[in-house]
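Hey Z.,

So I finally got round to the alpha-D-galactopyranose thing we talked about over coffee. Here's the setup:
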Amino acid sequence: MKTEIERKLAADFESSYGKEPLLIARAPGRLEILGNHTDYNEGFVLSAAVEQSTFFAISPSKGDICRIFSSGWKDKPEEFSISTLEEKTPGDWKNYVKGVLCEIRRRGFQFGSFDAGVISDLPLSSGMSSSAALEISACLAFEKAFGLDFSPVERAKIGQASENKYIGVKTGLLDQFSSIFGKKDSLILCDFRENKVLRNVSIPQGYSIIVVNSMIKHDLVDSDYNTRRKSCERAAAEIAKFAKNVRTLRDVDSKFLEEFRGKLHIVDYRRARHIVEENERVLSAVSYLEKGDILSFGKLLFDSHESSRINFENSCPELDYLIEIAHSLPGCIGARLSGGGFGGISIHLVKDDEAGKYARRIQAAYLLKTGIKTDALLCRAGGGAECAEKK
Ligand code: GLA
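And the result:
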């Protein structure tokens, strides 16, 4: 059964190419619940796939030219050639698709040309990983259309490598992992040293996650993301000079880090402190959730934001203001920025019966203070990527 959004994509596909798509693959966006910038430090993250997704329709074609459109955004099909995949135009949305193809080819696999179409109900560039959703839905569609079959972890790595090498942001595996391994009504606890999902953690009954967008453009390509990563790696390398068992910040706990306070550059120390404490917060969060101690879990969300603000400096005044409002409104038990930061979204854990009122109030307060009209989206944890249709 096609959903409404898939029906629209299939109809647009038919009117663009005069044929039905062979199949449609779906990949969701994600919410980073706790564990900020810990993934590329081989640490832990608690995340969820959301129901909002990107859908990628495909039908193989002949020759060298691939055509692709994006419903409601770049409606007219655009073209690129298979023989010049490595050529990229900066800022072009098709780079995310071409990057995936380059990574598939780098792994020694062949594919032909195709007609494709994309549709999404994920907010773009906001911190819900619309780029990973595009990469993963594209990869899944290419696999099914050209008879390839990657393991889910390899598929995640293809998405990540395309982002690292083609787009040029040194992101970790969190976004692709969450999009692939997400579970309905559940959070997933991932270990990014082992690259695996350790377990699913139930979302407490009676609470909703409201996503409030700061509307400050979140675009990791232009951000300090890579600088933050370098700082973390420098801190780990410095500590490793004195402690042989340390490979990444994953191997450091907060007590041990204190011994290095004077030895690290103050900025690197603060970045490292954020990571080390985030890892500890993720593990405490899981145990609080499993004990049903939702209030302590909520406090960790607030603590995480404070650490982003002070130590990692990946917040911004608008996000800080959203969290300030969260502290003052009834019904919210925890809130923080979510994702790369420097703008983008914040997540708010709110009692179900207060959720509607909370969403309206936070929008009003934000508008009053900043003059910015924002969205407040009720998000539910959805299932991971799938290939919705094969005829
Ligand atoms: C972005 C990156 C992820 C992760 C988060 C921060 O979403 O793509 O790999 O590092 O930021 O936790």
